[in-house]
Write a structure and sequence with these properties.
The chain is of the alpha+beta class and 224 residues long. 56% of the residues lie in helices and 18% in strands. The protein has 2 domains: 72 residues; 143 residues, Jelly Rolls (Sandwich), CATH 2.60.120. It contains 7 helices and 8 strands. Strands 1-8-3-6 form a 4-stranded antiparallel beta sheet. A 4-stranded antiparallel beta sheet has the order 2-7-4-5. The chain is elongated, with a radius of gyration of 25 Å.
Length: 224
Amino acid sequence: MFSAGFILLQLGYACLLGVAFMRNALWRRSFLLAAAMLFAIRAMRSPIDPITLGWMAIIILACAALIGRPFIRNAAVHFTPEDLVLRSAIFEALPAHEARHLMDQGWWLNGAPGETLTRQDQPVETLVFMQSGSAQVLVGGRPVGSCGAGDLIGEATALTGAPATATVVLDAPARLWCIKSATLRDYISANPDVGSSLERSFRIALRAKLMATNMAIAAHRVTG
């Protein structure tokens, strides 16, 4: 039979191996913390190994500090009611402090009827989140749909720099959060994990728009 010390050692090695396969920093630190704790428990068994125990204590404290730091930072973050709506719609997958930092790269403003948010075949200079209000979507000058509260405008091409696929014009007073497309692309280049999360949110938003458009077209055919 294997001794308890042998089993602890093998489990510790397994946790170290797990570190190599974890892409998420939090999981890597958690596996390293688990390995250090297992090695520390083994070092406390008779005969006690004070040197190994000391090193494992240092690693445990360092990992605990690194794991706990995001939770402390998140606890200090403040969101206004409209910020919470924005975060729920786009940044829900991001930790609170990362969402706050990204949101601070943009700004809130009030939009008036008649203002154009995107122009077909022109680059999308600003990504827009509509917290309230409504807008008309036009392709070739003809109405093809609408946007309302909770919708993103420009997400289809803001990350690529490609021209807008439609013109979007406000048809009611609106509350908008805006961020320059170039600023967003630079931010994502510096924070790849944030980019992956945003791309998923944008895909979900686009899918919802396509479904709404298809339903509107189907309803128009039935009534027409």
